[in-house]
Structures are given as structure tokens and as C-alpha cells.
Amino acid sequence: TMAHSKALLVLENFIGGKFVTCSSYIDSYNPSTGDVYCRVPDSGKEEVEAAVKAAKDAFPIWSSKSPLERSRILNKLADLIEHDLEAFAQAESKDQGKTITFARTVDIPRAVYNFRFFASSILHHTTECTEMATMGCVHYTSRASVGVAGLISPWNLPLYLLTWKIAPAIACGNTVVAKPSEMTSVTAWMMCKLLEKAGVPHGVVNVVFGTGAKTGEALVCHPDVPLISFTGSTLTAQRITEKSAPHCKRLSLELGGKNPAIIFDDADLTQCIPMTLRSSFANQGEICLCTSRIFVQRGIYSEFLKRFVAEAKKWKVGNPSDPTVDVGALISEEHLEKVRSYVKKAQAEGARVLCGEGVDSLTLPAGNQKGYFMLPTVIAEVKDESCCMQEEIFGPVTCVVAFDTEEEVIKRANSVKYGLAATVWSSNVGRVHRVAQRLQAGLVWTNCWLVRDLNLPFGGMKASGIGREGAKDSYEFFTEVKTITIKH
After folding, report:
1. Is pLDDT of 6 > 70?
2. 418 near 258, Cβ under 8 Å?
């Protein structure tokens, strides 16, 4: 009915500093109720073309600004998002299904910090110089902005991961065409409303909403977009690689993970258990860095399992806007079904589901009965070959298995196609360093999880991606280097 459609939030593309209507739209759901609450532009070639043109036109002026001028604008944008932190957090929680607590304490503060961090780091890079005195030559490097960057971000940490790309891209003097996930586009649209006030010139940041297959593809195939930064699935990344190959584009790909936690018998379980619950179930397990394979040394295996399951059962699932809730809704009905299917497969293979899906009953508030909720689920006695131990599930599901020796666990931890992150729990310093060296992972956390210094490289090995992001790495990706030689 008309009355119903009036209540829907309708997003518009942001191109050349203006909001532009689109000819067709996609429904976006509130995951905690299962209702359509928002309409997102279903952009195609035409919209992407207009956005790329706006970005190209804005590039000469933006790239000729000094790093300090760009830095001030980034800081101003950070201040404006921070000023509206609560509104952004509410919107992120409603749109994505994550708890309001997580959006308030993690997503939005980190989005603000992404701008502040790159506003600062862009002022502190230096280039290289070498001398060849005998030949009377000096060599030096110079770095320049590249052009239009295509940025494609996922649905799990919407504004957090979008700003992690926009900030370095524009700090380095590039202009951007960004495509957030069509499932979580609201906070990107809200950010667009602040760009003018922050002093971002028209065309520097363009946001085109829509699906990967249509909008993303048009962006990746566009000949005037030399850079593509993508965070998402390994499958989509393969398609991006194929489509961008004829254009010789520079790619940064941050993909999935099947991250191990390795818990040795000298681990401090009072710290290890609460942190491993977080690394398994935070943000409904929808973080590429979540641990989904927990290897526990045999001597403490049964004690760990008993305590871990008892604590997992205390995690409260429910309405994301309730500040006492620990687990919100999963992103979509389709995704919920996919996550559930993994639990069913594990059971069919003879694994034991110790708590959660299919074992405990989930009671939800009246308004959330049709939402996409699932209890934190712990599976034991799973074989390493099982799909539950090999494939990324991306939900509140973790597998716990026993191991005997250090040598054995390293081999097993490395036996997946992914290599993003790993956590190691032990109080033996020598072992910690030894194991960290041998794990095939771009990030290894010891006796902690998700402690990040944005100065340092972030990214994965093997099927977890190509390239790294961080102060130096993002600067190198978003600039073109030139070596200049002068004979005097």
C-alpha cells in the first residue's frame, strides 16, 4: 500500500556532491524483525558512469591540494561523524542486525578513528633517496595520487570497513567511487550528508548503491578506475580478478578466514575463555577475524570445553537495540539458513553439538519472532576434513577439537585454504614466538584478540587475500611511485 511505502527509508546515490534518484530500487530488510524497511538504489552502468565522470573531474583539484589541506578536511569529517555517533550507531544496528552496544563501542568509533588516523599518517610519510657519488648521480622517489579508486565494502562492518578504504584513498589525493553492500547501505548514505559540511569538494567522494553483480561489476570493468579495493568473499574476489585483468588494475583484496585459536595447556583460562568466546561470537561471528576452529591441548581439553560451553550459554540473544543483548540478528534469512546448514552437516557427520542451534531453545521478544537469530553454537568432535573445519561459516558457530603436540597443531592449523588470522594462548614465551613464526596467517594474536595498531600491515595469506592495508601499506597502494635520477 501507499501508506506502507511512505514509511520506508529511501536512499539515493551521491554523485558529484548531489543526491540523485535512481530508476529502480532493491528492498533492504531489518534483520531483527524480518521486515523491509528501506529501499536501496539498484544502480547499473549509467549511474557508475556518472560517478566515475564526477570523480575524474574532481581529481585534478583534489590531488593538487597539500596533504595538510586534505588532512584538515578528513579531521573535520571525523568530528562530524563523532558528533552524530549515536544516530549512526542506531542506524548501523538496525540495518545490520548487530547489537547497539557493538555499534556504539566498535563500529562507529572506529569509523571516526579511520579518518583521524589517515589524516595524521598522511603528514608523516617520507620518500627515499640514494646517492652514487662515483657516478655523480642522485636517485630519489616521488609519490603521486593515482586517480579514481573503486571501493567495494561488505555488510558485516559497514561504515567501519567503508571508511577504512575511503580515508586512505582520499588522504592520498585520489577521488573515489564507493559501493557499500546493498544489504547495509544506510550509514554510507548518512555519511554523504556530512561531506559538504566537512569541506570535501564535489566529486571527491561518490557513493553508488546496488548489488555486486550489477553495480560492482560496472565499477570493476570501468576503464577509468585504475584502483580497486575490495573486502568480501573469496568467490567474488575471483570474479573481480578476472574482470579487471584486461585493464591491468591494481587490486587490494581482503577476503575470508578460517581462523584457528590454539590453546596450550599452560594458557591462563580465566583470560582465555572470555576472550575466545568474544573471538568466536562477537558481531554474531560475522567478522573475517573470528575464530572458528579452537584447538585445545588434550590435558585441558575437557575442562576447557565444560567452562567454554557453560559461558557460551550465558550469551544473551535478542533485540539488538537492547543494551544488555550480546548477540544480535544475522544479516539475512538466506545467510541464517546457510549457517544453520553447517550445524546440520556437522551433526550428520557424527559431531556433537554441545550448545546452541538445535540443542537449546531460543526465546525472542514478540517483535523479533521473524528476525534472523541464532544461539551461539559450539561443536565438538569434528574431523579436520569436515566442511565445518574447512569453510568459512561466518556465523555464531565454532568448533572445538583436541591436539597433543605443538608440531601437530601447527600442521592442522595450516591445513585450510585461508590464512588471515590466528590466536595463540600460552604463557611460554619461546613457544609463542616459535608458533607465531610457523602459522600461515597475516595476523597472529597471542593471549589477546583484535588488538590493532593501524600503523602495521593488515591482511591475509593464501585465499585470504592480496596485499595489505595500514598506514604504510595503504599509502603505497593508493599512490604511484616514481624513481627519478639526476646526474650532476
Report:
1. no
2. yes
